[in-house]
Design goal:
Elements (H helix, E strand, L loop, with lengths): L2 E4 L9 H7 L4 E4 L14 H13 L4 E5 L11 H21 L3 E4 L8 H18 L5 E5 L12 H10 L2 H4 L2 E6 H6 L8 H11 L5 E6 L1 E2 L10 E2 L8 H8 L9 E3 L7 H21 L9
Parallel strand pairs: 1-2, 1-10, 2-3, 3-4, 4-5, 5-6, 6-7, 7-10
Antiparallel strand pairs: 8-9
Helix pairs in contact: 3-4, 4-5, 9-10
């Protein structure tokens, strides 16, 4: 089971490894830098070796980063677009240095014309992946769809994927966030199978590289990105129980981005214990196929 949390890298990227061990994570997500700053620090050799050695000796089977919140590869502003491209390229370099499996990125905000925003995003992705070859996969994250945000529908995500240059398209997949899906109008509560079927029909389940498990403070179709603790929001526990026992999703890494409350470790442990319990209960009752999809 590839299951874990977004963990802090305060004190250096390698500090994420013991934090992951404390919550028994087999998958982690990190920031490789301050997500709210443009500063682009390189990973020095000592930090690179510490992180890679820690990863190899841990029980972590999947590690990914989330890029900076400032990046907007769909921006019509040439200065911001160029700055975003530089930052995004630096993110990819840090991921490759650390040996990360994937980089999760939001498609950005188009501001002016939606189709032009999609095209700008695809061009930037092509340039960055061509500039930084390697094994780190780019996962474009489905969004809640507020304002001019791109990527809130499976159809639009499929269009963006098609626009990415063919030479690098094989390194690109998608990341689904349950809170974003629900806020965008995909009803995981009352149409669970229908949502995943639509994803398969329009994008392809083979391209699903990660799931962010978050309940939602906001109601269905609200277009508001507000994360809540698992089972305590408008999605509720049953959809998460089904995700944790769905053979189609068995091999997909799953990471929580739920609120940390006063004690991040204790809260993450509680959330992950709940999710593991969903899966364990199904296994004890013989309801979960052990083969892949």
């Amino acid at each position: 089971m590839l299951l874990g949390a977004h963990v802090s890298t305060s004190g250096g990227v390698a500090s994420a490894i013991p934090r992951a061990a404390a919550i028994r994570a087999t998958a982690i997500q990190v920031f490789t830098k301050q997500a709210s700053q443009w500063r682009e620090p390189a990973i020095d050799e000592e930090e690179r070796l510490r992180f890679r050695a820690g990863l190899q000796s841990s029980g972590i089977l999947h590690a990914n980063a989330h890029d900076s919140y400032l990046i907007n590869l769909a921006s019509p502003d040439p200065f911001l677009w160029t700055r975003s491209l530089i930052s995004f390229t630096c993110e990819l370099r840090r991921c490759e240095a650390l040996g990360l499996d994937a980089l999760v990125s939001h498609p950005g905000n188009y501001i002016d014309v939606r189709d032009e925003g999609l095209a700008r995003n695809a061009v930037a992705i092509g340039i960055a992946l061509d500039t930084v070859p390697g094994t780190t996969r780019l996962l474009l994250e489905m969004t809640a769809g507020s304002g001019t945000a791109l990527g809130s529908s499976f159809g639009e995500m499929a269009t963006l994927l098609r626009l990415i240059p063919g030479g690098v398209r094989g390194r690109v997949g998608v990341c689904v966030d349950t809170a974003h899906l629900f806020a965008a109008g995909y009803d995981l509560v009352n149409d669970y199978d229908g949502v995943w079927q639509r994803l398969d029909d329009e994008v392809g389940l083979a391209l699903l590289g990660m799931i962010h498990l978050n309940d939602s403070k906001a109601p269905l179709g609200s277009r508001r990105d507000r994360h809540e603790l698992i089972g305590e929001g408008t999605i509720g526990p049953e959809a998460f129980r089904r995700i944790m026992t769905d053979p189609r999703l068995e091999r997909v890494p799953k990471v929580i981005e739920t609120p940390k409350l006063d004690d991040a470790t204790a809260t993450d442990r509680r959330m992950l214990s709940l999710l593991r319990g969903f899966a364990d209960t199904a296994v004890r009752h013989g309801r979960t196929p052990r083969s892949g999809p």
